[in-house]
Amino acid sequence: MGMSEFYGQADEAGSIATIHRALDLGITFLDTADMYGVGANEELVGKAIAGRRDQVTLATKFGNVRGSKGEFLGVDGSPGYVRTACEASLRRLRVDAIDLYYQHRVDPNVPIEETVGAMSDLVTAGKVRFLGLSEAAAGTVRRAHDVHPIAALQTEYSLWTRDVEAEILPTVRELGIGFVAYSPLGRGFLTGAFKSRADLPENDARRSHPRFADENFAQNRALVAAIEDLAGAKGITASQVALAWLLARGPDVVPIPGTKTVRLVEENARAAGVTLEPAELALIDAAFPPGVTAGTRYPAAAMAAVNR
Question: What pTM value is reported for the model?
Answer without folding.
Answer: 0.94
